[in-house]
Specification:
Blueprint: H1 2-8, E1 33-35, H2 41-46, H3 62-73, H4 83-105, H5 120-123, H6 130-147, H7 161-181, H8 194-210, H9 223-227, E2 239-243, E3 264-266, H10 268-273, H11 294-297, H12 303-306, E4 315-318, E5 324-326, E6 365-369, H13 370-383, H14 389-394, H15 396-402, H16 428-440, H17 447-453, H18 472-477, H19 517-522
């Protein structure tokens, strides 16, 4: 059973191997980060640069079938040992695969067995509504939680009970906010979302109350940066699941985390999002120094920002003699250039491997971490209108405390005149919880999902992501770069398809992906998604 279930783990995220074209900034192609490679799937999604595929396009059920085959045959194994645990892992992975499909396509057929000729009711049947699919995913995760053992009862780096609960909170938060904010469009579910949001809060709270995990702590000026560039995370109290790499086993990577800046960079929108060290936004804080130079931008800002962006003097390479090559200016030219002037420090590990004198490619990949449980709980409670100061102290303020930021005080959250325009208004607490989510989970792969579930197209449609101020220092080193009317780098000036040269996302169709035409031809009961 263990060997079979091991094969199911391949669907979990990882550093993409050298030559695969992957970018370590998982949010590259959104309003928070962009990349030189205009082929990025996320960029194409936000730009509306997607066509109906003739086949494929993500409509793939192989992984679901693999799980169903295992569950159908699990009864042949004698009871005892870790049998129930491995069955729980299988339910987790079916939920994982279905959630991936739900985010892309919405309505889905619910398949709980391996299909054979003659299963026409499923093979040629219609899709089930998304709300029903979401409840099916949750039922699989409830089953997983009931069967999975705790972290200390199973081998390291396996799915455990708390991981299933954390993932359940993610699914429920996604669907709850989707059904709330899409209630008046073609992509709506059949509820107001509150039941999902209640379940999201309960699942996240189960992880918090379990007492197994906590935030990693340390020097507030380094702790956030150091969380993301470790080789071994086995003793880190924040990490629920991580993927290890080993040179000895031949599964190291050499490209994605070495050839920085990887053709990617953070946007002006991302830079302006972070608070100052007094807990105020840049629009209100007297500590804000402006954006005319990176040295000004990083002054008096949330330490997570300072630890995520390369600053002059930060190490680029530390060799075996402990000599350090330091960062001076962004790399704005060449194949791996930074298109925005804001290079990422997050995920960088400048040290060479003492055994080989080169980059080892063994940096750990975080799949689930405790911080997400805190953020999910706070957001769900706020969406339900149930947020208390105690909730903030249990969640958001723990994240802020570890980097030395002031706490969020529910009764006195200042109104930011530059809060994002989502196309609808929020409570002050929700605006700030969303900001906190962006700051804490930057480039960890959540941004596209958040934009989709919040129905947040107003944030970016018809707008272009901009970069740093094109200072005299940058211009001398890299002349003739594209800029906007205010002299900020404008790398997508001629790259996008929307109005005013901005993102071309069509809110009437791009919230879901199109089904491939061959599937619609074979099964006439399948209907294409809205707008396609």
């Amino acid at each position: 059973m263990e060997l079979y279930v091991n094969g199911l783990y391949s669907v979990l995220p990882s550093w993409l191997l050298s030559g695969s074209g992957g970018n370590p900034l998982l949010d590259a192609g959104t309003d928070m980060a962009i990349a030189v490679g205009l082929w990025l799937p996320t960029k194409n999604r936000l730009d509306g640069a997607i066509n109906v595929p003739s086949s494929g396009g993500g409509w793939n059920w192989t992984s679901v079938r693999d799980v169903n085959y295992f569950l159908e045959n699990a009864s042949r194994v004698p009871d005892g040992g870790l049998k129930d645990h491995y069955i729980g892992e299988a339910y987790f992975f079916r939920a994982w695969n279905y959630f991936t499909l739900l985010k892309q396509f919405g309505d889905l057929p619910i398949v709980t067995k391996t299909l054979a000729p003659g299963d026409d009711d499923v093979l040629y049947g219609p899709r089930s509504p998304r709300t029903e699919v979401a409840n099916f995913i949750i039922s699989d995760l409830d089953m997983a939680v009931s069967k999975l053992k705790k972290k200390n009862e199973v081998p390291a780096q396996r799915i455990s009970r708390d991981i299933a609960s954390l993932f359940e909170s993610r699914v429920c938060l996604y669907e709850g906010t989707w059904e709330k904010y899409h209630k008046n469009d073609a992509f709506k579910g059949s509820t107001d979302g509150n039941a999902f949001l209640t379940k999201a809060a309960q699942a996240a709270k189960a992880v918090i109350d379990g007492g197994i995990y906590s935030l990693t702590t340390g020097n507030p000026k380094q702790v956030y940066y150091e969380l993301f560039n470790q080789i071994n995370l086995s003793s880190n109290p924040e990490i629920l699941l991580w993927r290890s790499y080993s040179t000895a086993q031949g599964d190291q990577f050499t490209n994605q985390l070495w050839n920085w800046p990887q053709g990617s960079g953070y946007t002006q929108e991302m830079v302006q999002m972070y608070l100052c060290t007094d807990g105020l936004p840049i629009s209100l804080s007297p500590l804000y120094k402006g954006e005319n130079d990176i040295r000004d931008v990083i002054q008096n800002r949330d330490p997570r920002f300072v630890q995520s962006v390369m600053n002059p003097g930060d190490p680029i390479l530390i060799n075996l003699k402990n000599d350090t090559t330091k960062y001076t200016l962004p790399v704005l030219g060449g194949a791996q250039n930074d298109p925005t002037g804001y290079e990422s420090q997050k995920f960088r590990r400048p040290q060479l491997d003492p055994a080989t004198g080169s980059y080892s490619g063994e940096q750990a990949y975080i799949i689930f971490r405790y911080a997400e449980a805190l953020l999910n709980y706070a957001e769900a409670r706020a969406e339900l209108g149930q947020l208390t100061q105690g909730d903030l102290d249990l969640t958001i303020n723990k994240l802020r405390t570890r980097v030395g930021m002031p706490p969020m005080v529910l009764a006195s959250i200042p109104t930011d005149p530059n809060w994002p325009d989502y196309g609808y208004t929020l409570t002050n607490s929700l605006y700030e919880i969303r900001r906190e989510r962006e700051a804490e989970l930057l480039t960890e792969g959540f941004r596209l999902d958040d934009l989709m579930r919040w129905a947040a197209h107003k944030l970016f449609v018809g707008k272009r992501p901009k970069g740093a101020y094109y200072s005299a220092e940058l211009k001398a080193a890299y002349p003739n770069l594209p800029v906007d009317a205010n002299n900020f780098l404008d790398p997508y000036k001629t790259a996008l398809n929307g109005a005013n040269g901005g993102w071309g996302f069509n809110p009437a169709k791009n919230y879901l992906m199109p089904l491939p035409t061959n599937e619609l031809t074979v099964n006439t009961a399948l209907k294409q998604n809205p707008g396609w």
